[in-house]
Specification:
Layout lengths: L30 E9 L2 E8 L4 E6 L6 E6 L10 H15 L6 E6 L4 E3 L4 H4 L4 H19 L5 E5 L2 E3 L1 H7 L3 E5 L3 E3 L13 H9 L1 H10 L3 E2 H6 L5 E3 L4 H13 L3 H14 L4 H13 L5 H11 L20
Parallel strand pairs: 4-5, 5-7, 6-8, 7-9, 8-10, 9-12
Antiparallel strand pairs: 1-2, 2-3, 3-4, 10-11
Length: 322
C-alpha cells in the first residue's frame, strides 16, 4: 500500500479574513481588475486571471477558498484543441500548487454548452502520431484534474460531449441543468473514448449502463443522467451554477484537512481490496488526530459555534489551507 503524504502542522478551518491573491498563469497574461458579482443572495469580489480559453477566478470574503475554473472558447463551443489543452494544464497545475484552495468549480462561460469535446477541425490536420500524443496528453490532464487534493464540482449547462463528458467524469461531483445533454459519440467516428471515458464511466454508472452508452453513442438528457447516477443533481435550466456554488460553500465550511483526507481515503480505497481500503482509511484518519483542525472542531461543537481559524497560520505544505 503506498504511503500517504504527511500532514505537518496545524492548518485549519478557513478564515473570513483570508487574504486575496491573484495568480498569473504561465502564459504571462496579466490579471484583470477585480469584479463584483452577485451569487444568489451574496456578493463576492472576484480576482480574475485571463488566459485565453481557460481562466481561473478566486472568490473572496466568506467564499474565500472557492476557485472557479472556467472554459471560454465560444467560437468552438469549448472544443479542446492544443491551446485549450495547454490552458487546462496550466490551470490545474496552478490550483494544485495553491494552498488556499478548498474546492474547485469547473464551468463554462459559453451559453448552452459545457464542452463539445475534441476540436475535430484541428484533429483533421494532425498525423496519427500527433493524434496519439494529443490524446495521451488529454488523458493525463484529466487524471491530474481527478487527482487534485481538493473536491471538484463540474457545472454542466448544455452539451457535454466526448472529451467534454470525460472532463466532467474526472470531477468529484457533477451538477447539470435539465436541458443538458451527455454523450460519448466516439464509436460513431470509428474510435473509442480515449481520455478516460471507458474507465471512469463504468465506475460511476455501472458496467452495463456504460457499455450501452459507449457502444451506441446515445445522447441522454439531464434527467436521465441523474437517474443513472451520472450526475449528482439535475436542476432547472440556468440554475446549475447556483446549485454548484451552494455545494461548494457547504464544503468550504468544513475542515479542509478532513476534506482532503476524505477524498484521498475514498479514491485510494476504491482501487484496492477491502482490508487494504480500511488500512487507507485508518492512515488518513491518523493524520488528522494531531491537527489543530480537529481540536478546533471539537471546541466549536462543545461551545455551539462555528469553527474559526483566526490568528492561526497554516504550516503544512500543499496539504492544507487556512
Amino acid at each position: 500500500m503506498p504511503g500517504f503524504p504527511a500532514l505537518v502542522g496545524r492548518s485549519i478551518f478557513r478564515s473570513s479574513s483570508h487574504a486575496l491573491r491573484s495568480t498569473h498563469l504561465t502564459t504571462g497574461v496579466a490579471a484583470a481588475p477585480p469584479l463584483l458579482h452577485r451569487f444568489g443572495s451574496r456578493r463576492a469580489l472576484i480576482i480574475q486571471t485571463l488566459s485565453g480559453p481557460v481562466r481561473i477566478e478566486r472568490l473572496s470574503d466568506s467564499d474565500s477558498g472557492i476557485i472557479e475554473l472556467k472554459l471560454d472558447r465560444p467560437e468552438a463551443k469549448n472544443a479542446i484543441g492544443k491551446e485549450m489543452l495547454r490552458g487546462l494544464q496550466n490551470a490545474i497545475e496552478t490550483i494544485g500548487n495553491d494552498s488556499s484552495a478548498n474546492v474547485v468549480v469547473v464551468s463554462s462561460s459559453v451559453p448552452k454548452v459545457f464542452c463539445a469535446g475534441a476540436d475535430l477541425k484541428e484533429r483533421k490536420l494532425m498525423s496519427a502520431s500527433e493524434v496519439q500524443q494529443f490524446v495521451n496528453s488529454l488523458r493525463s490532464t484529466f487524471s491530474s484534474l481527478e487527482e487534485l487534493s481538493v473536491p471538484t464540482v463540474a457545472v454542466i449547462e448544455g452539451a457535454a460531449l466526448g472529451g467534454g463528458l470525460e472532463m466532467a467524469l474526472s470531477c468529484d461531483l457533477r451538477v447539470c441543468g435539465e436541458q443538458s445533454t451527455f454523450s460519448l459519440p466516439e464509436t460513431g467516428l470509428a474510435i473509442i473514448p480515449g481520455a478516460g471515458g471507458t474507465q471512469r464511466l463504468p465506475r460511476i454508472v455501472g458496467r452495463s449502463a456504460a457499455k450501452e452508452l459507449i457502444f451506441t453513442g446515445r445522447r441522454i438528457s439531464g434527467k436521465e443522467a441523474v437517474s443513472m447516477g451520472l450526475v449528482n443533481y439535475c436542476v432547472p435550466a440556468g440554475e446549475a451554477h447556483h446549485k454548484a456554488l451552494e455545494i461548494a460553500r457547504d464544503i468550504n465550511q468544513k475542515g479542509p484537512l478532513a476534506i482532503r483526507m476524505a477524498k484521498q481515503a475514498i479514491n485510494k480505497g476504491l482501487e484496492v481490496d477491502m482490508p487494504s481500503a480500511l488500512d487507507a482509511e485508518e492512515e488518513c484518519y491518523e493524520q488528522l488526530l494531531d491537527t489543530q483542525d480537529r481540536l478546533e472542531g471539537l471546541a466549536a461543537f462543545a461551545e455551539k459555534r462555528k469553527p474559526s481559524c483566526a490568528a492561526l497560520r497554516c504550516a503544512a505544505p500543499r496539504s492544507c489551507c487556512c
